[in-house]
Structures are given as structure tokens and as C-alpha cells.
Amino acid sequence: MRGFRSLLALVVLAVVLCGSVAASAQAVRVGVGFSIAPYAIRTLDAGLEVDLIRAAFRAAGVETQFVYLPNLRLPLAFAEGDVDCLAISLGYDLAGRTGRRVFYSAPTLTFQNYAVSLASRDLTIASIGDLAGHAVLGFQDAAQYLGPEFAAMARDNGSYAELSDQSLQVRMLFSGRVDVVISELRVFRYWRNRLKSSPVARSVDLNQDVCFSRIFPEQERQVAFADETLCGRFDRGLKAIRDGGKYERIVRSYDRAEDAQ
């Protein structure tokens, strides 16, 4: 009898383990940028964009596994099938860069990128063309995300560079090492607030006034899928959390957290 019970326990354990593996295998793998806090915070497996996407999938009865990657790696992961979908900006030519058929979701949220400069520099930046001749630091792959005019500026400006670490962007602006950084508003605020409570604040004045030059249009974010049916399920889930108020509660929770800093 004791041997039978031991065998039964092993069978039950095997079933549980197989079920866990199956559930994990069925989770949708979502590729997101690893350096766009507060939209995606890898160490917390959370963030404004991450939480909205997770909630929309959950409303559709789908579990998720988020894969945090550098911007340059995201299209490669999609092309190679390492992720099932990507969080990207509207207008990004994912099909052209990967050679795969792509199905796009409804907009998930809106980014607002700015050219940010120190007020003490007294720069006049009313258009992308005004960036010429200045030391400009963009986020990684910004030239692919911000349109052909910006891409041309980036190509022709010998003082243009890109970084994947957007906290370093903020440090370099306030330390005077660059004239302009290209950053999304929430991202810039997030890193400025975090650096104020870090050792960096002892050597860099993070309280300097800055100018936000709105030279880019608002940019909607969406999720790009390789599977049309999964895209449809996500859209239904996204509509459900919008209609039910969960979407707005998630957005407010992140904005309140930054306002309190």
C-alpha cells in the first residue's frame, strides 16, 4: 500500500509539473524595450505600458511573459520568432525590417517626445532643423522611430549619438556634456526624479531649469503581432479594460507616483 501511495504521489506531481510547463508554454511572449521606464521596468517586471498590455491580455484570457530587450534587438527577436508580439510605436516599419507579415493592434497609449535642453543654454529649437550644429543625444534607434526628417538630421549631424541607457542621457544633459537630449516626457521625468535621490546628485545639479521643445508629433504606441487571431483577442481585451475603467486607473497610478516625487 505504501508503495502504491508513493507511486500515486509521483503521478500527481508529474501532472502538476506538466500542467505548469504547458501553462508557461502557452503564455504569450511580449517583447518590450528594456530602458523606457516608467513604461517598462525590467527589474520589477512592470511599468505603465507593461501593466496595460498585461491587463488587456488578461481580460482576453491570455497570460503573458514579458521579454525585455534593447531597441535594436526587438525586431530581430520578432523576425526569429523569439517573441510573439512587440510593443512599438505607430509608423515603425516592422514588416520592412523583419520580412514577416505583421498585424497591428489598436493604440495602447501615446508617447510625447521632446527635444530637451538646459534653459541656461538659451537655445532656440522650434523644428527638427534647429538641431543641426548641436550635440544631440537620442535614445537607441531614435532615428528609426522619429520619422525621415529626424533620420536625415541624425545622419548629417556629426555630433549626434544614441544611447540605450536613458538615465545616462539625463546625466549628460545636466552635466553639460550635450546640448540636447531627445526623450519622452514621462521617461525624462522618471530618470530625473530617480537621479535626484542617487549619488549622482552630489556632483550634478539636477535642479537646473530645462526647456521642453515640442518638435515631434504625439506618437501612438501599439502591439505588433505575427498572428492575426491573437491580435484580435488583444484588441478585445484592450477595449474591455478601457470600458471598465481599469485602463485609466493604471495610468493614474503611475502619474500620481511621479507627481509625488
From TrEMBL:
Transmembrane portions of the chain: none
Gene3D superfamilies, per the entry: Periplasmic binding protein-like II (3.40.190.10)
Native source species: Pseudodesulfovibrio mercurii
Domain of life (superkingdom): Bacteria
Keyword annotations from UniProtKB, A to Z: Signal
Name the UniProt record assigns to this protein: Extracellular solute-binding protein family 3
Signal peptide positions (record): 1-25
